[in-house]
Amino acid sequence: MSVHCLLVAGGSVPGILGRWRCFPVPVGSSLVQGLHNSCCRKKSTAPKKVIPSVALCDENTKKSGNALDKLFSSEQQASILQVLNTASNKELEAFRLLRGRKSINIIEHREKFGPFQNLESLMNVPLFQYKTAIQVCNSILCPETEGEKRKFQDNRLLRKLIKPEIKRERLKAVNSIVSIVFGTRRIAWAHLDRKLAVLDWQQSECCQLMKGTYLSSVYLQEISSVISKMPNADLYVLEKIGLSIQNSSRFPVLLHFHIMEAMLYALLNKTFVQDGQHRVLSMNRNGVGKHFELMIGDTRTSGKELVKQFLSESVLKEEPRVVFPSEKIVRYRQMFSSTEQQRAEELYDSLLQAIAFYELAVFDTEP
């Protein structure tokens, strides 16, 4: 009688079968027939019903469009369609959600297919999905006021200027700040109150930090010593320099700046663990440069002459832009004169940064 050999997983058996065992099975047995049917079952040749993806997309768009029409009354729909069908590209961009490519797409769709007949047809415009279409329709019905537009623009500019993001209420309530600017050889700070009175302004040499192997203990010792001289303030504002890491020759300087920034954040944010409130912020250097018109292309020029002007105006004008207390003006002018040959840009920049912070973030006004 003919037999088939059935392999079954089992205990370890030496030889080429490894961990499999061989059992004889008669040819006509139901076990062999069942295994054959299971392994050699023919695939069904009946064609499967395929729903085209385009049809699904059209169906979903149609349902969303119908739902979109139901969200607004006939009067509201008429108002929205009036804007979509008659507004110019510039007029459409007045709505915040229609700026950029969306307004262009509406104009192009209108020119190609004619006026929008209903809100559902808005779903056929590129970049307009269901949720976006609802937001756009609502913005057309309830356009932003000039105050809201300005507030949005101000918040956007503020986010680019200052990191991390901080609530406006806290900024408006600030009474004094310490503005800190550090370079490769020195660190300078200016302490100003909200009347733009210079309460303290000085610098400290840190020549040893970039020598050797950037030891954390050396940085901690040097920076702790500098911080001990700084006055208390509501906020501490550090200058943020945007150096590119692609230039490998600048890597030692970039490393130095990152270590300095991290140390200052850690040592000055004394209450962060308890209240989670940032007391240390970083301010974009070029943003300050633009505020004082010190930028030539992407390069910021020296603020030395501007600081010199502020010092003079403090004596000559009744209402100067920056107030240097009379009992300190002589000392500040002597300090400025003594640094003129040293190019003490950190000293000048610390003062300019403090003024720009108040004028841009606290007062929210241009001089």
UniProtKB/TrEMBL annotation:
SUPFAM superfamilies: Ribonuclease H-like, RuvA domain 2-like. Gene3D superfamilies: AF1531-like domain, Ribonuclease H-like superfamily/Ribonuclease H. It is found in: Mitochondrion matrix, Mitochondrion nucleoid. InterPro entries: RNaseH-like_sf, RNaseH_sf, RuvA_2-like, TEFM. It holds the Pfam family HHH_3. Keywords: Mitochondrion, Mitochondrion nucleoid, Transcription, Transcription regulation, Transit peptide. It comes from the Eukaryota. The keyword Lipid biosynthesis does not apply. Transcription elongation factor which increases mitochondrial RNA polymerase processivity. Regulates transcription of the mitochondrial genome, including genes important for the oxidative phosphorylation machinery. Belongs to the TEFM family. This is Transcription elongation factor, mitochondrial. It comes from Felis catus (Cat). The gene is TEFM.
